[in-house]
Amino acid sequence: MDLISLIFLSCALAMDSFAISLCKGFSVKNLQIKHYILTSFYFGGFQALMPAIGYIMGVSFEPFVRPIDHWIAFILLSFLGIKMIKEGFENENCPNDSNQFNFKIMCTLSIATSIDALAVGIGFAFLNVNLILALFLIGFITSILCVLALKIGNSFGIYFKNKAEFLGGAVLILIGIKILIEHLYFD
């Protein structure tokens, strides 16, 4: 997977965390530096950790699925993309606990928003991916986007939440199609 694809994938995976961070920014009256640090640390950290766990899981099955690895990557990314697009059309309000940044809430939200990254990590086991670079980009880009989302949410409300999820889903589907086409026609 090339660098541009990894950057787009990282942005797409960050969209759930971005949407939650928008809600948090909207719900907190007075943002402090600790809010930015906690949001960046939890969401970026979990987004980087989950693909690593998925990769380890995927490597154990790699010899059995190598002949159909491109189809698995395509199906996983398309499924996740469709799920995110569907969520983008749902008219959800921010959860009641959006203004809380305690350990339990942040861990729960971080795990919930990074399950997609676990599935992508499984796909990494079957693709030619620089895992260290991928994990760094996923964590770093998620951290930066979540910090921006806090500020945007605090300033403008949650107007961008559904659009972010829709865009992230579309990017995941396009990356899945790219992987499939590359493998079927250029490998």
Automatic annotation (TrEMBL):
Ribonucleoprotein found in the keyword field: no
GO function term, MF aspect, one: manganese ion transmembrane transporter activity
InterPro entries: Mntp/YtaF, Put_MntP
Pfam families in the record: Mntp
Subcellular location(s) per record: Cell membrane
Annotated TM spans: 6-23, 35-56, 68-85, 105-126, 132-152, 164-186
Record's bilayer topology term: Multi-pass membrane protein
A single Gene Ontology CC term: plasma membrane
Keywords, sorted A to Z: Cell membrane, Ion transport, Manganese, Membrane, Transmembrane, Transmembrane helix, Transport
Function: Probably functions as a manganese efflux pump.
HAMAP family with a match to the protein in the record: MntP_pump
Family (UniProt): Belongs to the MntP (TC 9.B.29) family.
Protein name, as recorded: Putative manganese efflux pump MntP
Organism expressing this protein natively: Campylobacter cuniculorum DSM 23162 = LMG 24588
Lineage, highest ranks first: Bacteria, Pseudomonadati, Campylobacterota, Epsilonproteobacteria, Campylobacterales
Name of the encoding gene: mntP
